[in-house]
Amino acid sequence: MRTAVRLANRAGRAVLVSSDLSSTVDVQTASGGLFGPSTRDVYDHWVEFIEWFKVAGNSFDAMSEAFVPGDFGPPAPEPRQVFAIGLNYQDHADEANLTYPEVPPTFTKWVGSFAGPESSLNLPTTTVDWEAELVVVIGKRADQVAPESAWSHVAGLTVGQDFSERTLQLTGPAPQFSLGKSYTGFAPQGPWLTTVDELKDPDDLAIECRINGEIVQKSSTARLIFSVPQLIAHLSSVVPLLPGDVIFTGTPAGVGGARKPPKFLSDGDVVETSIAGLGHIRQTCTTAR
Ligand code: ZN
């Protein structure tokens, strides 16, 4: 029995995850070729896909296959555009000694940095930091969208990490946010995309990051300075958001660079990031190339 859509990406193919999180079905097979095989095709036909799911969603349990999250890649692996927002929690702006932004500070994480929910993170330097983030995937093109209707353009939500190489990020007269946050493996996401209909309040989700079991970040997306609807309204006032596009929404307080003294990731560290109702992802740090 499926109540919400949980869409994952296994080896480039779109799969649906069962409500008890124990099995998957291949979207192309289950839909008789209507959707898939890629998640990109599913997002490109999102409205029709959801209509199909409402009718067919409980009829294909017999096709189920077992899985482990380590099989999955990021749920939206081929976005045309990736947006990432800085300073979007007041407590994080406070720890960075920066004033609250009047418009969302926006950069990108290039798709080459994407990784799945269980991955290894090669540390290119000794100043790599963690940033637990809610990630939004667009389902329906959004152009000049008002906040009141923004959620209807969202396919769903997933868990992400905006790993950040602080030295490159902050180098130069114009800081290099996009490049410093796009090293290989710096944008893990997953374990799957969850549609918002199952969440009691999609604007209030507990978010947490642990390193080697110790809680380093703990907050709620209710504390975002710019909420998901406000971000979609702002971004879509500038550029249309396209199906499958990805938005990293910013991180709460507790990053390593703001500590005194600063603390960064080292070889063997295990970073676990979780969001209530969406699941968790896990990255293991390594310095071996
Ligand atoms: Zn971030």
What do these coordinates show?
By secondary structure, this protein is α+β, with helices and mostly antiparallel strands. It has two domains: 6-67, no CATH class; 82-286, Fumarylacetoacetase-like, C-terminal domain (Fumarylacetoacetate hydrolase, domain 2), CATH 3.90.850.10. 17% of the residues lie in helices and 30% in strands. It has eight helices and 19 strands. It has helices spanning 27-30, 39-44, 46-56, 90-95, 147-150, 166-169, 177-180, 228-238, and strands spanning 6-10, 13-17, 23-26, 65-66, 72-73, 82-85, 106-107, 114-115, 118-122, 128-129, 132-138, 154-161, 164-165, 187-194, 206-211, 214-220, 246-248, 270-275, 279-286. It starts with 5 loop residues before the first strand and ends with a strand. The model has no long low-confidence stretch (mean pLDDT 94). Zinc ion (ZN) is lined by residues 84, 86, 131, 133, 162, 248, 250-251.
Percent of residues in β-strands: 25-35%
CATH class (first level) name of the largest domain: Alpha Beta
Number of strands: 19
Radius of gyration: 18 Å
Gap between N and C termini: 44 Å
Judged by helices, strands and strand pairing, the structural class is alpha+beta
CATH superfamily caption of the largest domain:
Fumarylacetoacetase-like, C-terminal domain
Helical region count?
A: 8
Helix content: 10-25%
Reading the helices and strands in chain order gives EEEHHHEEEHEEEEEHEEHHEEEHEEE
Q: Give the biggest sheet.
A: 12 strands, mixed
Name every ligand kind in the structure: zinc ion
